[in-house]
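Key result, reporting period 2: structure in, sequence out.
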């Protein structure tokens, strides 16, 4: 679960973290996808999963770009925290203990007790209420209202927590290193320290398992982003070709123009 800690300043001003263009929406195999959020709608609103997604910049609030490397890390956190849910958006609804919150309009802020633990952690990244309150203040997020705790907002909050721990630059390298896991261990108890233990003495995922999960996610993301970029280039080339005016043969009654006309008509129509 995400640990509660005093707020730290942003490492970059919001203006310096303006979102970069991404790629359009399409469905990937095994519930993986790259989604377009340029119109400000959440992918979950249209019935598609946001797992392993690289969105275009939607309406505010939005300060962090979601690159393949960052999305792979986000989903690795979900995997470690037990909210991966096979890449389904249901993971954004999960409370501590596995139950689902009634809506995504706010953090539920409800303590759930299990046989050994009690926690109010909720969401894909298991935000504790004090942590969520700190994030909403720091990023200027709404605390309640439609989708105030929605998938896109949770993603932004998780990346902010990664940045607070001084791990965003490491994440952007596209490598899941022991140092990266160690820096995030105080934020997410399921991440191992360099000693391989939980920072809080709770159940922890093995580093090798997290690294394999991360690398598989990142490989698929990068491959599909490249495919979409290639599709976009081909589509642009096709549109450009359509815009070019066809060459008109002249003079029309010349032998060359008549022969070209016959080739266009085809042999079966020559009489």
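The corresponding designed sequence is given below.
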């Amino acid at each position: 679960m995400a640990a509660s800690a005093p707020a730290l300043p942003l490492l970059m001003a919001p203006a310096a973290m303006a979102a970069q263009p991404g790629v359009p929406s399409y469905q990937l195999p095994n519930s993986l996808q790259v989604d377009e959020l340029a119109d400000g709608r959440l992918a979950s609103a249209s019935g598609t999963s946001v797992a392993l997604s690289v969105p275009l910049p939607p309406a505010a609030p939005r300060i962090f770009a979601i690159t393949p490397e960052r999305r792979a890390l986000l989903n690795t956190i979900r995997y470690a925290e037990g909210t991966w849910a096979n890449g389904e958006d249901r993971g954004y609804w999960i409370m501590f203990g596995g139950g689902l919150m009634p809506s995504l309009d706010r953090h539920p802020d409800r303590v759930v007790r299990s046989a050994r633990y009690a926690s109010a952690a909720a969401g894909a990244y298991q935000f504790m209420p004090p942590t969520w309150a700190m994030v909403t203040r720091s990023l200027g997020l709404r605390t309640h209202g439609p989708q105030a705790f929605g998938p896109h907002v949770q993603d932004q909050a998780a990346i902010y927590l990664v940045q607070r721990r001084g791990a965003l630059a490491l994440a952007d390298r596209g490598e899941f290193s022991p140092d990266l896991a160690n820096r995030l261990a105080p934020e997410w108890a399921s991440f191992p320290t360099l000693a391989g233990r939980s920072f809080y003495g709770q159940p922890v995922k093995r580093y090798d398992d997290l690294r394999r999960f991360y690398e598989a996610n990142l490989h698929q993301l990068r491959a599909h982003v490249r495919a979409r970029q290639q599709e976009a280039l081909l589509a642009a080339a096709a549109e450009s070709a359509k815009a070019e005016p066809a060459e008109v043969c002249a003079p029309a009654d010349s032998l060359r123009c008549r022969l070209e006309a016959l080739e266009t008509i085809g042999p079966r129509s020559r009489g």
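The CA atoms of residues 25 and 35 lie 4 Å apart. The chain has one domain: 14-226. This case is discussed further under Risks and Mitigation.
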